Amino acid sequence: MSFKYRFLISLFFALLILIPVSFYLKSLTSNISKQNFPAASSLPAQVKENEFIAPNTFSLPGSFMGFTITSVERADSSIEENAFYFDFKSFSLSLRGWKARKEGLKSEDYTKYQKLFRDYLNSELTKRGWAADIQINGKVLQPLTADGPGGAIWGYVKRSNDKFQIIILQETSSSYKKQSISSLEEDCPCSLSFFVFFSEVFNIDKFLKN
């Protein structure tokens, strides 16, 4: 038998084997796709962004500027007890959120990351309609604000119809000696932490009656 005929016979038998196998693999792949990846038409429509923010929907990716991100169940009691002021009277709220921390910063890096983080948070919140304070019946409602050695506290508030929500930001820092920073040049490398705390959404009337 010539080489030509042997080659044709081999090719014929190879096709007999490969064609069923290819159909099987195609069917198997199709079944896997149907099980794990629904068709686009069966996916739910995109949910419209809420007026307010839940703690688990406003966060940072784990690698954001090299900060370590962890969740925090409760803010310090001193913050929660004076979470916001309305008409010069303080009110308490339960707060929870997350913490971003970066260690071993040189003096120039400390200033850079501090500004980047503050600018990022301010940009993200203000473009969603949050403000440093709001007015209700001509009276100011303002989140807690404080500043001192080793840290600062400020906040944002948002109102939608008869409801509002508070966000408190806390910035803390410490030197390589675990003390307050008096001079970046002398006390760094330093650590920098940002806490972002969220309140629940409340009816304004609840506080107007107090």
Tell me what the structure shows.
With 210 residues, the protein is α+β, with helices and mostly antiparallel strands. It has helices at residues 3-36, 77-80, 107-126, 184-187, 205-208, and strands spanning 68-72, 84-86, 89-91, 96-105, 134-136, 139-143, 146-148, 151-160, 163-174, 190-198, 202-203. The radius of gyration is 29 Å and the shape is elongated.
Any descriptors?
210 residues; seven-stranded antiparallel sheet; four-stranded antiparallel sheet; 5 helices; elongated; disordered N terminus
Q: Summarize this, please?
A:
By secondary structure, the protein is an alpha+beta fold.
Q: Secondary-structure blueprint of this entry?
A:
Blueprint: H1 3-36, E1 68-72, H2 77-80, E2 84-86, E3 89-91, E4 96-105, H3 107-126, E5 134-136, E6 139-143, E7 146-148, E8 151-160, E9 163-174, H4 184-187, E10 190-198, E11 202-203, H5 205-208
Antiparallel strand pairs: 1-4, 2-3, 2-6, 4-10, 5-6, 7-8, 8-9, 9-10, 9-11
